[in-house]
Amino acid sequence: MNFIDLKSQYQHLKADIDARIHAVLDHGQYIMGPEVAELEAQLAAYVGVKHAIGVSDGTTALQIALMAIGIQPGDEVITTPFTFIATGEMIALLGAKPVFVDIDPATYNLDPNLIEAAITPKTRAIMPVSLYGQCADFDTINAIAAKHNLAVIEDGAQSFGATYKGRKSGALSTIGSTSFFPSKPLGCYGDGGALFTDDDELAKTIRQIRSHGQDRRYHHPIIGLNGRLDTLQAAVLLAKLPSFADEVAARERIGARYSELLKDVARVPALAEGCNSVYAQYTIEIDGREAVQAALKEQGVPTAVHYPVPLNLQPAFAHLNQPVGSFPHAEAAARRVMSLPMHPFLDEATQDQVVAAVKQALA
Ligand SMILES: Cc1ncc(COP(=O)(O)O)c(C=O)c1O
């Protein structure tokens, strides 16, 4: 059994993916070939923003977004401790300070009620993560940001395709960011990512930073980096995008079926009002996780933990002095969450096998 099944998806889309890849091999424009702009136009239309900018990966996407809004050493950026390291890491890489705020235990996303208490004169931005494929509470977060004149960057690495009150992840804040890492809801065949914004000036700055800060070849008004999306990865994404809506529908159906079948034995994901989830991870909460994982492994059911250590307890952030107990909800989730096999090609028989194994392990 696969935790994520990329082979079935490839078999399903093989003709289109192969044709798109071969078109790149034929024209040979591997860096910023025409597929990149073609993909950006399609991504902007899908997300519902003026500008989509393809970048090299979801981590660099966050770095570029933070650079584009002018984050400097000493600035503070409010974010969640219950996320993949990249979120806090890119804030720290720029010399800024990640200011962690605990999660809402119902959704695992940043608790907006705790944000205002964390704002200081040094705060420049809020960077919520739309964890597991469900958007954070952007209306409330944006209202707080507007009141305090802060930018909002969505780390939507796990939520591409998700909807919040009728709007798409990526279109909910000053800048939206995503990852096309192969296992993400929309994945390419290597590293990839994108940024989204309605702001013309920010889009221009993001494009410059992506290409060494240049406005034209060998002219560099600002400092940037090499953060371009590969043409070959853009080609793969162009082949996958037409069936993405069907895959999102399948993810929602499979996630809902898991929840129906497991709700009596484990804590299943809760969807906030106006939100769906693309279930980048289908994650439940249980007691005795290690034993349950071992029992499932015995039954041939792979599991994973997203994430076992909150960022405040990572050695890389030890200097922030936020010991155990600083973020009770994030820390409890880190001890209890477990993700089950999830992909759009998961059939009911296999899902029943997972459910039976979970029930047996918890009995
Ligand atoms: C929440 C979150 N942020 C950022 C990233 C980084 O994306 P990438 O692996 O494409 O650099 C990931 C990917 O794992 C993620 O899950």
Say what the CATH topology of the largest domain is: Aspartate Aminotransferase, domain 2
Shape: globular
Give the CATH class of the largest domain: Alpha Beta
Strand pairing plus helix content: what structural class?
alpha/beta
The total beta strand count reads 11
In terms of per-residue confidence, which ranges show pLDDT below 50 for 5 or more consecutive residues? none
Helix-strand topology string: HHEHEHEEHEEEEEHHHEHHEH
| CATH H-level superfamily title of the largest domain | Type I PLP-dependent aspartate aminotransferase-like (Major domain)
Helix percentage range: 25-40%
Strand order in space, largest sheet: 1-9-8-5-4-2-3
**Biggest sheet descriptor:** 7 strands, mixed
Q: How far is the N terminus from the C terminus?
A: 22 Å
The domain count comes to 2
Bound molecules: pyridoxal-5'-phosphate
Query: How large is the share of residues in beta strands?
Result: 5-15%
State the CATH architecture of the largest domain.
Answer: 3-Layer(aba) Sandwich
Helical segment count: 11
Query: Radius of gyration in whole Å, from Cα?
Result: 20 Å
Average pLDDT level:
98
